[in-house]
Amino acid sequence: MLGRSQPVNAAPKKVAPKKTFTMKSLWRLGVWGATAASALLIAVLTTRSEVGSQRVGIVLSSLTGAPSSSPGKAATQQVATRSVDTEAETRRLAEAVRGLTAENDRLKSRVAAVEHTVDDVTGSVTRQIEAVKTEVVPPWPTDKPPEPATPAVIASVVAPVLPSNPLTPPTRRPAADATSPSGAVAYAVDS
User: Fold this and answer.
1) What angle do CA 47, 51, 57 make, to 5 degrees?
2) I want to staple 173 with a disulfide (CB 3.0 to 4.6 A). Which of 82, 100, 177, 185 is the partner?
3) 3-class SS at 185?
4) CA-to-CA separations, 181 to 76, 108, 160, 178, 188, in angstroms, rounded
């Protein structure tokens, strides 16, 4: 029997039980994702600092095969570069201040020109008001008190307007009769 091969019954393949997705596995996946995102955020934030950026620069230079310089030499180069950048930034800011000062002066001169134009318009009104104030003549002499109007004075002012018969409507006077030869204005009531 040695020479004969007998068919071997192969055992059926075992099927792995189907894993169910439970709340516990969901929480585990969520915590794992949050931890990974936090670690990535911390790595990014550390590169934003000066020391972190130096470390990233050293790592990148070693990965690219560029000769790495000593950290002290790199720091000296950065200080020199930073001082040049500071001087350039100072010059740029000084130029910006000069430009803003020139713009301010130009705007002030434009505002002064507009005020002068407005003063020409409103100044004439002011001059007219001042002229009227100086021409004001008191209606009675200032050395004696004003006299009350007497009934005769009131009647002489009102008489040309009143009709002779109060029960009849007043007649309309022509426009030529509106002023008397003496220059006094006569008043009438239109019906």
Assistant:
1) 65
2) 177
3) strand
4) 107, 60, 14, 10, 17
- What's 177's DSSP letter? G
Separation of alpha carbons 69 and 58, rounded Å: 9
Total tally of structural domains belonging to the chain: 2
Residue 169 covered by a domain:
no
Enter the tokens of residue 87.
Answer: 């001087």
- Dihedral pair phi/psi, residue 178, rounded to 5°: -65, -30
Q: In whole angstroms, what separates CA 31 from the centre of its chain?
A: 46
**62 and 74 belong to one structural domain:** no
At residue 34, the pLDDT reads: 97
Higher per-residue confidence, 60 vs 37: 37
Provide CB contacts within 8 A for 179, sequence distance 6+.
185, 186
The SS3 call for residue 78 is helix
Residues present in the chain in total: 191
pTM for this one?
Answer: 0.26
